[in-house]
Amino acid sequence: xxxxxxxxxxxxxxxxxxxxxxxxxxxxxxxxxxxxxxxxxxxxxxxxxxxxxxxxxxxxxxxxxxxxxxxxxxxxxxxxxxxxxxxxxxxxxxxxxxxxxxxxxxxxxxxxxxxxxxxxxxxxxxxxxxxxxxxxxxxxxxxxxxxxxxxxxxxxxxxxxxxxxxxxxxxxxxxxxxxxxxxxxxxxxxxxxxxxxxxxxxxxxxxxxxxxxxxxxxxxxxxxxxxxxxxxxxxxxxxxxxxxxxxxxxxxxxxxxxxxxxxxxxxxxxxxxxxxxxxxxxxxxxxxxxxxxxxxxxxxxxxxxxxxxxxxxxxxxxxxxxxxxxxxxxxxxxxxxxxxxxxxxxxxxxxxxxxxxxxxxxxxxxxxxxxxxxxxxxxxxxxxxxxxxxxxxxxxxxxxxxxxxxxxxxxxxxxxxxxxxxxxxxxxxxxxxxxxxxxxxxxxxxxxxxxxxxxxxx
Length: 458
Description:
19% of the residues lie in helices and 34% in strands. It has 8 helices and 30 strands. It has 3 domains: 1-9 and 201-395, Trypsin-like serine proteases (Thrombin, subunit H, Beta Barrel), CATH 2.40.10; 17-129, no CATH class; 404-458, Carbohydrate-binding module superfamily 5/12 (Seminal Fluid Protein  PDC-109 (Domain B)), CATH 2.10.10.20. It has helices at 26-32, 41-44, 52-62, 66-90, 117-122, 134-150, 175-185, 381-388, and strands at 2-3, 19-21, 94-100, 106-111, 126-129, 158-162, 167-172, 192-196, 202-205, 212-215, 220-222, 225-229, 232-237, 247-250, 255-263, 269-274, 283-285, 291-293, 305-310, 314-329, 332-340, 352-355, 358-369, 373-380, 391-392, 420-421, 426-429, 432-436, 440-441, 455-457.
């Protein structure tokens, strides 16, 4: 956690041996296209709306030129859509996917069936044949989560599903702590490996994403993303920043609102309802205080670029290392966070993580700092929105409509603007059935027939 009163660790993971086939030719198309074409994945995810602030931060932190930064975003958008379709096609044999290369021009999709290689390469991705399915790895991690909840004294600092290594990795300062957690979980030891790490995570304490706010007159955190709930306006942030009822003041020390709900540990989620003096805006604070557009919340793949805005250190970028990570702070364990190479410092907690113009999550905790580098974890935004019934404020939405997650799809069916959908979810729309390819919160204009990057007809 990183709040201002009061960040978590990483180690390099070596890849396991596997069969690697074919190349992804997607980056060539990105170089040829000055702007995303209508209906493309890059168009759906609003790559053209990526702020100069985002692109400049990517150049600084990832060593890219401006053209390379935009190309990377185009490739990452396309890779997410391809990976989503292959996940549905491979079903139970699917073992994860990730992007790599300076331009994210290579998508690798892992499977436990060698016969799937032809299907994967035909889609333009590399195939990696591995022994364990993603479902098996996630099952082992869930067993570790349950063990940590029963006995937090045996919890190692961090554990996660590493799809690139096809294993569950448990990090610990003392190997005995990792061994105790694994032994108490009943997880298949063949799916789990221990990695030594000197880092010990802690919170990052201390209505526009990245702006500062103050809790109860003491302590500072950062706004994650502006939201609405019916006619109520407010923002999503980290749960460790405050409890239900905690009052807040804004960056300008003017009375702002109060926490309506908060979960920590277990998860690190919360939302604040603002008073009538504050208006939710579809922006995140960029360098120099300029606005960065938020156009949606499509989850980016492992290896993708991601940038963070916080009230202490401002804009910094890095890459997504793993989704579905568990991390143990002194207050307890939280699960389901995403591990990144982005740095953060006290006061950045709760702040925005964004890929291009797609909201990713709110800053939870980490280790290191923005001078020597570090590792930071964020709480994914889509489960937070779903858990509290919130609607993300985006530039794509009607500015006069606060959003209603219960609005029915048109022209009929179960699809609903404002609903949060996970990969694999099924809906009906216009008499047809569709399967979700990438997790996101639906919004007007993203009806299933209109966004093949997000939905596939079943």
